[in-house]
């Protein structure tokens, strides 16, 4: 373990970590400043409003496709619970419960 710590504190590793931190910071800040240069039209506002749902779909749907029917049913149950109760913890519990039940039933 001490060898790992020693290798992480070498100058090259520290410089690489700092350079990546700076690159990450610059990417985030440049997006903020670039958006100040673009006029916010109604079309752009609609596109930006659609991004969160698109990102969720792009993240979750491949998982559902890979994990099967039980994951899809659990996701649908969690989504329904979220729409009805508007409580993330409740939706999480419902989704997990349905996933466990679906796996127990062999789906």
Can you put this structure into words, describing what you see?
Helix 3 crosses helix 4. Helices cover 88% and strands 0% of the residues. The protein has two domains: 38 residues; 66 residues, no CATH class. The chain has 107 residues and is mostly helical. The chain starts with a helix and ends with a helix.
Could you provide a short overview of the structure?
88% of the residues lie in helices and 0% in strands. It is mainly alpha-helical.
Major beta sheet, specifics? Answer: none
Can you tell me the overall shape? flat
The total strand number stands at 0
Helix content: over 70%
Radius of gyration: 22 Å
Supply the number of helical segments: 5
Oligomer: single chain
User: Which class of secondary structure composition applies to the elements?
Assistant: mainly alpha
The ordered string of helix (H) and strand (E) elements is HHHHH
Mean pLDDT: 87
List keywords for this structure.
mainly alpha; 2 domains; flat; 5 helices; 107 residues
List the helices and strands and how they pair.
Blueprint: H1 2-8, H2 11-37, H3 42-67, H4 69-85, H5 88-104
Helix pairs in contact: 3-4, 4-5
